[in-house]
Write a sequence for this structure.
């Protein structure tokens, strides 16, 4: 334990946590809640993969399976992936990276967490009182007129948690605009900040649309107004447009913060300035903007006009370019660097490989003539898991490890962490690569039983999932272990640039007793003096 | 812009001016988000009106234009009183602020009262979507019009109720002299919110009440 | 070869090979870039790895605008190739040839109801002749389903409240998977069946009622869809108002595919969706000059019956009659008289 006062020991008792205004404590509150939701979502996934070991629907009843994949999706998307990095690492680090004492609106920040918990409570209520079986996409008229499961509580849970996102995004935007330390111009900001700024724009402009959509869904289901029900004169495709108008940008909410982390990890563990800073910064904004223009690629087969499909296809290819630019720039950063394979770096390098595959397969799906065959098959499932698990989650884990010393004052054990990272990488590929093949072979998604020719691929996938599960269990264990037994961490164990490393580990509540003045550009490794290593 | 230097401010800011500037940006970001929130409904409206213009026009004729016009005038009036309240706060005129804040709330309440009367009328005319909906004409798409009418005006009314609640708190604080030359941002930002809710109505009124009227 | 290894579905349609070729291109480009990136990442990180205890002052390489432009433009160019190739193939997939055989398919929880125009019906099976384009008109009775035949590389959502279409031309005799590919409730994974491709002569025999293959349900032979529609037209009293010279309802002969003026002066094309809507909700798109007196037939006609009525209405304007058991090219189907599919 440290002898000085830091944000962890500044005050004791449950109420000092539940009524805190300190962004760092709020980040820890989020860390605990989303870890819980991740484990729950993961347990559903495990059950799905166990069922899919055999072609027959023999482990779970059809309705149960349908509920499990729905709840896996809802929990993972809305209660894990969307909040994870922004609410945990964003909350903790943004004020520190810009030299501020807290976010612009600390009370709003706490309110965001409570709103998240309230939304999660509604959704968990739906889960334990019978479940939802509409798919996380809630397509109408199934969800409004046919399903007899807990659709409304689940929809309301999503509605409520949406406001948590919106307020977090609002807080971040104002903070980044107004709370930067003297000398910290926009183009000196860490790329983590640029990534969160772009993400916050999507939070603000996209989340309200899903909010109104699920609200209309709940109203329709309760009162049968007919807005989405063809039997009452409504249009089920309108629901799809409204739903995907948010849900496509949502995937950029899930990946942009992770990309921000990767920029931090690559530079630190190559001890080198990032290649193409301006291009990476602007590419985040480009992804945020273009991401709002491509939602129709989810509707290629819905009966939408050919002209609309052509336009959405072109735009979907365009949105890939800024992501490709990032990958090339990260790779170029390694050139003439000084590369250390610490656990965070293994996650970062793994991210680059897996995100590249995920992104490239996105191009397959944007290709109209090809998408007809693989839409709604396991090809799509594999694609998005490569991005969200191989991409976003790997970045999250890399970031958690990297900033663990700062957040807790303890080092995690390096060799178990490296081994866990390798297990995650291998388990992940074994789980999801066979799914690309199964998809092209014709296996539709959301199937609880399937023709026998798909079995071998499914068995490989389940084997991979088991290994992946072990890979995720390990950090859960050793990170908890490190809280008591980990080596005490210095202020800057990695010798990294960035204002957050100028504070003690863990930092005091007010972060900086004196507001720093910034005179250097970001990632000024070339001019840094030799650091002390752990 | 007046001087905020004298007033106290939260610890994460460097000055009262800093706090005010952050709060202002925050409210504008919030309003941007609200525009998208209502935007989904406007989109649904546009899609259905384009597809079924006759049904929408016929359904729109069942709305009371007189009451709608009256309410529009009331709301615009309330924006005027709100602006005058903000002005009073900026100048530190305690009773000016209080009077105009109260007037704003009263006008807001009048608006809501008229809406309640209109909703009552719709209920008696069997124009509330659901099993009791009756309409002479394209009943299904008229029902969609009325569904959108109730959801859009209902959401708007909810925003007004929240606004009146905030105004009540502000009135109380203003009466105790909380706002003045050095600190008036809560009144100013509530004003921004109130004007936004007014503007939403300015769009709702012609789109819902004035289809096909000459 | 990949098919025999169980890595690809059979190529059983004219477009399957084209889709597979596009796939091969996408795979090659992806493999190239994946290996390039993975190779660079692994190679560079090993080559520039830090030795224990070593401190290296790395060079301050800011970036290179030339490289940024290059690696933006080249991927852009490659993606545009992908776009145009995919778009071209997609347009082919969306444009059934004029001489396509027409089949109506109605999806419902949890089965595919197939109706051949000549009268034969099937559940969860679709018999088609080899080497002949087949156009499928789809709708749903309840929720959204999706008609997917991996061996043909085709898929199309079946949406309640409207018609969608897809087409294929089978190139290989055999039996191929038919899947529902849009989650639709409890038995979504059980809403599967077969597309059976037969020699043309065998298909004609099957159509006429030879139940030798045994597996199909539904009436052998049976009356044609147009005749069913004619029967309904009389039964439901449509002729009362919709006859030549009547002021009660518009003339229907020759109507499908033409432009109709509505009450508010706007024009609309009298396509299948319009005809269907006008039967179920006559007030929605009232024709100018007529009073709103048509009653609704919602609840009185099933989706299949609607398709039959539409087929009959279309046959009123066409000159070719066609004997039962044969399908004259272009007539008798719900889309006779229309060149394009839904757009």
């Amino acid at each position: 334990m440290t002898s000085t006062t830091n944000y962890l020991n500044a005050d004791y008792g449950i109420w000092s946590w539940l009524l805190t205004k300190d962004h760092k404590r709020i980040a820890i509150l989020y860390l605990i809640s989303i870890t819980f939701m991740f484990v729950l979502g993961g347990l559903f996934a495990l059950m799905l993969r166990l069922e899919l070991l055999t072609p027959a629907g023999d482990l779970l009843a059809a309705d149960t399976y349908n509920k499990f994949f729905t709840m896996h999706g809802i929990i993972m998307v809305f209660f894990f992936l969307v909040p994870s990095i922004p609410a945990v690492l964003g909350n903790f680090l943004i004020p520190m990276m810009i030299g501020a004492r807290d976010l612009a609106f600390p009370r709003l920040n706490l309110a965001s967490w409570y709103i998240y918990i309230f939304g999660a409570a509604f959704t968990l209520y739906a889960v334990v009182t019978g479940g939802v079986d509409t798919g996380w996409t809630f397509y109408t008229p199934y969800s409004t007129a046919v399903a007899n499961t807990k659709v409304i509580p689940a929809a309301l849970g999503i509605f409520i948690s949406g406001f948590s996102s919106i307020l977090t995004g609002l807080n971040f935007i104002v903070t980044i605009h107004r709370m930067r330390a003297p000398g910290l111009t926009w183009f000196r900001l860490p790329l983590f900040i640029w990534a969160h700024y772009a993400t916050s724009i999507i939070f603000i402009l996209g989340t309200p649309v899903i909010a109104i959509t699920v609200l209309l869904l709940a109203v329709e289901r309760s009162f049968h107004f007919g807005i989405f029900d063809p039997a009452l004169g409504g249009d089920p495709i309108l629901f799809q447009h409204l739903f995907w108008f948010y849900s496509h940008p949502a995937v950029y909410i899930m990946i942009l913060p992770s990309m921000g982390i990767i920029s931090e990890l690559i530079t630190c563990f190559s001890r080198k300035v990032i290649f193409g800073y301006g291009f990476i910064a602007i590419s985040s904004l480009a992804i945020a903007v273009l991401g709002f223009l491509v939602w129709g690629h989810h509707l290629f087969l819905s009966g939408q006009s050919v002209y609309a499909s052509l336009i959405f296809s072109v735009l979907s290819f365009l949105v890939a370019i800024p992501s490709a630019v990032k990958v090339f720039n990260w790779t170029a950063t390694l050139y003439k660097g000084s590369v250390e394979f610490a656990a965070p770096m293994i996650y970062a390098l793994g991210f680059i490989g897996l995100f590249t595959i995920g992104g490239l397969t996105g191009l397959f799906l944007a290709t109209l003539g090809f998408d007809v065959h693989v839409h709604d098959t396991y090809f799509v499932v594999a694609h998005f898991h490569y991005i969200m698990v191989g991409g976003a989650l790997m970045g999250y884990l890399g970031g958690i490890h990297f900033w663990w010393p700062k957040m807790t004052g303890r080092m995690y054990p390096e060799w178990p962490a490296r081994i866990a990272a390798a297990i995650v990488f291998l388990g992940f590929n074994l789980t999801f690569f066979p799914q690309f093949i199964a998809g092209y072979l014709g296996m539709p998604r959301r199937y609880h039983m399937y023709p026998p020719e798909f079995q071998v691929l499914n068995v490989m996938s389940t084997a991979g999932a088991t290994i992946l599960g072990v890979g995720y269990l390990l950090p859960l264990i050793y990170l908890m272990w490190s809280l008591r037994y980990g080596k005490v961490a210095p202020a800057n164990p990695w010798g990294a640039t960035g204002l957050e490393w100028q504070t003690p580990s863990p930092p005091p509540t007010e972060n900086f007793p004196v507001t720093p003045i910034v005179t250097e550009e970001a990632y000024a490794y070339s001019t840094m003096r030799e650091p002390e290593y752990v | 812009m007046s001087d905020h230097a004298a007033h106290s401010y939260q610890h994460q800011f460097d000055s009262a001016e800093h706090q005010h500037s952050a709060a202002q940006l925050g409210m504008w970001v919030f309003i941007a988000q609200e525009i998208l929130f209502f935007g989904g409904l406007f989109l649904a409206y546009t899609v259905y009106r384009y597809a079924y213009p006759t049904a929408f026009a016929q359904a729109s004729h069942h709305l009371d234009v007189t009451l709608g016009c009256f309410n529009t005038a009331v709301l615009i009036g309330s924006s005027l009183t709100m602006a005058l309240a903000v002005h009073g706060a900026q100048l530190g005129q305690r009773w000016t602020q209080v009077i105009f804040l109260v007037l704003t709330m009263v006008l807001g309440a009048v608006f809501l009262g008229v809406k309640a009367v209109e909703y009552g009328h719709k209920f008696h005319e069997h124009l509330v979507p659901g099993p009791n909906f009756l309409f002479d004409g394209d009943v299904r798409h008229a029902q969609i019009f009325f569904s959108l009418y109730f959801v859009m005006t209902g959401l708007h009314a909810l925003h007004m109720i929240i606004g009146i609640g905030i105004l009540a708190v502000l009135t109380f604080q203003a009466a105790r002299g909380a706002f003045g030359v050095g600190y008036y941002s809560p009144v100013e930002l509530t004003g921004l919110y109130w004007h936004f809710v007014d503007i939403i109505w300015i769009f709702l009124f012609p789109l819902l009440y004035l289809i096909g009227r000459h | 070869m990949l098919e025999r290894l169980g890595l690809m579905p059979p190529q059983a349609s004219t477009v399957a090979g084209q889709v597979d070729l596009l796939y091969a291109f996408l795979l090659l480009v992806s493999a190239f870039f994946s290996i390039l990136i993975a190779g660079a990442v692994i190679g560079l990180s090993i080559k520039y790895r830090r030795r224990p205890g070593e401190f290296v002052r790395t060079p301050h390489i800011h970036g290179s605008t030339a490289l940024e432009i290059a690696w933006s433009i080249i991927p852009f160019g490659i993606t545009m190739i992908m776009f145009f190739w995919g778009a071209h193939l997609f347009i082919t997939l969306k444009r059934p040839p004029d001489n396509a055989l027409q089949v109506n398919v109605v999806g419902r929880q949890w089965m595919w109801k197939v109706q051949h125009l000549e009268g034969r019906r099937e559940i969860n099976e679709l018999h088609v002749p080899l080497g002949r384009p087949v156009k499928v008109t789809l709708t749903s009775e309840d929720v959204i389903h999706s008609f997917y035949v991996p061996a043909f590389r085709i898929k199309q959502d079946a949406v309640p409240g409207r018609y969608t279409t897809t087409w294929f031309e089978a190139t290989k005799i055999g039996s191929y998977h038919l899947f529902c590919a849009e989650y639709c409730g409890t038995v979504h994974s059980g809403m599967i069946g077969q597309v059976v491709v037969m020699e043309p002569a065998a298909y004609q025999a099957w159509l006429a009622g030879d139940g030798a293959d045994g597996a199909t349900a539904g009436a052998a032979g049976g009356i044609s869809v147009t005749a069913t529609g004619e029967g309904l037209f009389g039964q439901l009293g449509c002729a009362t108002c919709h006859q030549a010279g009547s002021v009660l309802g518009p003339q229907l002969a020759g109507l499908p595919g033409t432009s109709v003026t509505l009450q508010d002066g706007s024009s609309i094309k009298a396509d299948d969706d319009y005809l269907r809507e006008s039967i179920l909700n006559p007030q929605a798109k009232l024709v100018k000059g007529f009073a709103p007196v048509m009653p609704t037939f919602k609840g009185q006609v099933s989706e299949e019956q609607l398709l039959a009525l539409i087929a009959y209405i279309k046959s009123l304007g066409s000159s070719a009659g066609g004997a039962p058991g044969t399908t004259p090219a272009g007539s008798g189907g719900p889309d006779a008289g229309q060149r394009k599919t839904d757009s």
In short: The radius of gyration of chain A is 23 Å. Chain A has one domain: 14-502. Chain A has a mean pLDDT of 96. Residues 244 and 419 of chain A are 38 Å apart (CA to CA).
